[in-house]
Write a structure and sequence with these properties.
This protein has a domain of about 180 residues. The N and C termini lie far apart (about 145 Å). The longest helix has 21 residues. It is α+β, with helices and mostly antiparallel strands. The chain has 13 helices and 12 strands. Helices cover about 35% and strands about 15% of the residues.
């Protein structure tokens, strides 16, 4: 229902609504005058019911400001050094001493001392880092590497050399960036397996040939391939090792004794979860790949064929007939019952045919040489021509 004062005049003709409104205003004004006291003092004393309706919105007076008392510095003692000497020492002071002597740097704007943020606790070394001491390997720790696509790792070291039990060092050239667990596995392999093997050869191991260690790349350096274990600093490529006498033993060289390479193969496959060498794929024909990749069920991959050396010269002629082979005449079986070999019989028949050809006269030879002439029968058309 839409009701307004303008529409009310239409409903009640003769201005009845207007007269009622004026009467209501007059009654309200009279009630206010009756309730208002005549004395102003009494008016202040008496309060209307609605006077305290908005009392909580009235502004409150501010408290008196407190003035902090700043203590003045103590007077300079007579035994203190001179001011010139103090200025010289201040110029040579460290930034920490200047900051400690300046109260404005230590205090905030309001004069209160600011509390320094608590320092982060230093990360505790891992169990592997505590075990990989300088008596085992020269492997200083390096900061963690965090690259794109999960590249990098934590608890990294730079493996520079492996210390043998007799305190001799086997240098890793160039130094390899590896995880602590991988570096510890390489050190154990050299100390326990390679050093005794070199002693059996009559020398000592002095250097490990590092072909590749940490590199942020895909597998086999293929763009877009799955991240390699080299990208996680969990792999090492080895080409060989050098002995103290200067000789280099390449693990993929076919001229190296087969038994030596097989011994290295068995020791590597027992220590590392992945071993790739020649015949695994054509990416690992000139080096051996080692890593500690974790797989389901502790699955391991050991693919390295120890190949035999190639022949010096390729055989151009067929091999000679062995001495124990029977002679060729005896090997042929006889064809007739008289005991004559088949080859001798064919040779005799051929000689007899040549001799009979030589005894025949020249006329017979020409007739035999000239083929007989074939006569063609007369056709029906030729007969008709002859009759006509």
């Amino acid at each position: 229902m839409n009701f307004t004062a303008r529409k009310a005049s239409r409903k009640w003709a003769g201005g009845t609504f207007r007269r009622i409104g004026a009467a209501m205003v007059t009654v309200a004004a009279g009630a206010l005058l009756i309730g208002m006291p005549a004395d102003p003092a009494a008016a202040k004393a008496s309060r209307a019911p609605w006077d305290g309706l908005f009392s909580h919105l009235e502004p409150r007076g501010r408290a008196k400001p407190r003035h902090a008392v700043v203590p003045l510095p103590k007077p300079r003692p007579p035994e203190a050094p001179s001011a010139e000497r103090e200025d010289t020492e201040t110029d040579q002071a460290s930034p920490e001493r200047e900051k400690a002597s300046d109260p404005a740097k230590e205090n905030g704007k309001d004069g209160t001392r600011e509390q320094a943020a608590p320092a982060k606790p230093a990360p505790q070394p891992s169990v592997c880092r505590l075990a990989l001491t300088e008596d085992i390997a020269i492997a200083p720790s390096i900061p963690d590497i965090r690259g794109a696509g999960g590249c990098g790792g934590e608890d990294l070291v730079r493996l520079e050399a492996v210390v043998l039990p007799d305190k001799r060092r086997v240098s890793v050239k160039p130094a390899a960036i590896l995880r602590c667990t991988m570096a510890s596995a390489i050190a154990g392999w050299i100390r326990s397996d390679m050093a005794p093997l070199a002693e059996r050869l009559g020398s000592t191991i002095s250097e490990l040939d590092n072909f590749d260690s940490f590199e942020c790349r895909g597998r086999n350096r293929i763009v877009g391939a799955k991240l390699s274990e080299h990208g996680r600093a969990n792999a090492l490529d080895v080409r060989g090792f050098r002995l103290a006498d200067g000789s280099l033993i390449s693990l993929t060289d076919r001229t190296v004794p087969r038994q030596l390479r097989e011994t290295v193969l068995h020791s590597l496959c027992a220590r590392f979860s992945t071993v790739l060498g020649p015949s695994s794929d054509w990416y690992h024909e000139d080096h051996i790949h080692l890593d500690l990749m974790e797989r389901r069920g502790n699955y391991r991959i050991c693919q390295w064929d120890v190949l035999d050396p190639l022949p010096q010269k390729a055989p151009l002629l067929p091999a000679e007939r062995p001495e124990e082979a029977p002679p060729r005449e005896v090997a042929d079986k006889p064809d007739d019952g008289k005991g004559k070999p088949k080859a001798e019989k064919e040779k005799a028949e051929k000689d007899a045919a040549e001799k009979s050809d030589a005894d025949k006269p020249e006329a017979e030879k020409s007739e035999e040489a000239e083929p007989p002439r074939e006569e063609k029968p007369a056709t029906k058309k030729r007969r008709q021509n002859r009759r006509s």
